[in-house]
Design goal:
Immunoglobulin-like; 4 domains; rod-shaped; seven-stranded mixed sheet; 29 strands; 7% helix; six-stranded mixed sheet; mainly beta; 41% strand
């Protein structure tokens, strides 16, 4: 202030006011990822630093449950389930009333992700796109698929019918496996096993049954001996065993050398056929004779197909000392021992010599029989049987005591028959049973 007289004077006046800054609350413990085991009671607190004003309100919402509104600082879920899995949002709010303005709601928003975990369980286990029994044929392709519901992802295994692991995978929800079906290995139940850390040593299991159809075939590691050499008077057992699904309907034994089919119910004193329920059949000659030498076959059939095996018998009265194994007259403890074991290595020359010896032996027998009958009555025509087979029957009388012995003409002076080999020693039983068919 400049006065008219005197110096300049500065004039002052002091005034003050209170400034209050308003701000919203701040959430401090969210943006979290929480793992929870299914079935427990879950509780979570939304913590926030108060704003200005300090009065703070809370409420929760959920993305997977749009209609849910939980008021309060605490998120509580009783007996939480996998349906409760997802993202939850916490809102913290206050009311700000600035001077000279409309009131404003201050807020902070944060999320929490809840991962509801549970033990692994199998949804489906299929073979060939079906959950029931699957019927395929030997060699067909079969696709297995095991689908699992699990959190966290599970370890999955597919087991074969004998319990071995075909395929496995870790930390996954689906396991697929494809294989060619085997009639010898794949008939039965395949199993899918699934587990994660929450199964606690009790994995979930699911089975699917597979039925593989096949014609007769040999079992694994089965060796069929087909050549047998023995001495006269010993027992010979031709044993034949297979596997098929469905089981065999019949076994047909045939003496190939004599073109004679043997009836399945043969129970003569010398020739026996035994067929058992374990898919095996045996032809037993209780006392081998030189005329039993030759080729034999067995045919096994089921609804799918058939299989034929051929056997060769050599009955040698003068065996070579080396290189051959012969049957024991008293042994009867299995195929190998009954038929004399596996035939050793035989040279071609020795084999030819044996066949020549058998030929001359038969020839001497036939001449001897002719001389004996020449002194007696002539041979009647109805005692000579040619090409005896199941498909042709000479008389309506059953034949028993089948013998594969043959003879030629009565004498060299007689006229030869149409067939040089005929069967002898066929005993006719006086029973009234039906003829062989």
């Amino acid at each position: 202030m400049n006065t008219s007289y005197g110096s300049t004077d500065v004039g002052r006046n002091n005034s003050s006011f209170y400034l209050d800054i308003l701000y919203p609350p701040r959430i401090t413990n969210l943006n979290a990822f929480v793992k929870v085991l299914e079935g427990v009671h879950f509780s979570f607190t939304c913590e926030a630093e108060p704003g200005n004003s300090k009065e703070t309100s809370y409420f929760w919402t959920s993305q997977q449950l749009p209609g849910i509104n939980i008021f309060g600082q605490y998120l509580i879920i009783q007996n939480i389930s996998r349906a409760d899995d997802g993202i939850y949002t916490c809102f913290a709010r206050n009311v700000m009333q600035p001077s000279g303005c409309m009131e404003i709601n201050g807020s902070d928003v944060k999320n929490i992700t809840i991962d509801v975990q549970y033990k692994a369980s199998i949804i489906t286990f299929t073979a060939m796109n079906t959950t029931t029994t699957t019927t395929v044929h030997h060699g067909d392709e079969v696709r297995f698929a095991c689908e699992v519901d699990s959190d966290p992802p599970a370890d999955i295994r597919i087991l074969s019918t004998n319990g071995s692991i075909l395929k496995n995978i870790n930390d996954n929800y689906l396991l697929s496996y494809t294989k060619n079906s085997s009639c010898l290995e794949d008939i039965g139940q395949f199993t899918c096993i699934s587990a994660n850390k929450h199964n606690r040593g009790q994995p979930d299991k699911r089975n699917v049954s597979v039925d593989v159809k096949c014609s007769p075939l040999y079992r694994p590691n089965y060796f069929q001996n087909s050549t047998f050499k023995t001495r006269p008077g010993t027992k010979i057992k031709l044993h034949f065993s297979v596997f098929s699904n469905p089981p065999p309907t019949q076994f047909i034994w045939t003496n190939i050398s004599n073109s004679m089919q043997l009836p399945n119910d043969t129970t003569s004193d010398r020739v026996i056929i035994n067929t058992s329920d374990d898919m095996s059949s045996s032809l037993i000659i209780t006392s081998a004779e030189p005329w039993d030498s030759g080729n034999y076959s067995v045919r096994v059939e089921n609804e799918i197909g058939s299989m034929v095996e051929t056997f060769h018998i050599i009955v040698d009265s003068n065996p070579e000392p080396d290189g051959e194994t012969y049957t024991s007259p008293t042994s009867d403890n299995g195929t190998g021992s009954v038929v004399g074991g596996i035939v050793g290595a035989v040279s071609f020359v020795v084999a030819v010599a044996i066949l020549i010896a058998i030929f001359f032996y038969k020839k001497r027998q036939c001449h001897h029989d002719g001389d004996r009958r020449r002194d007696g009555s002539a041979l009647k025509d109805d005692t000579r049987y040619e090409d005896l087979t199941m498909a042709y029957t000479r008389t309506p009388t059953d034949y028993s005591d089948l013998d594969f012995r043959c003879r030629t003409g009565i004498t060299t002076m007689q006229t030869k028959t149409k067939e040089s080999d005929v069967y002898e020693n066929l005993k006719l039983t006086p029973t009234k049973s039906s003829a062989l068919t």
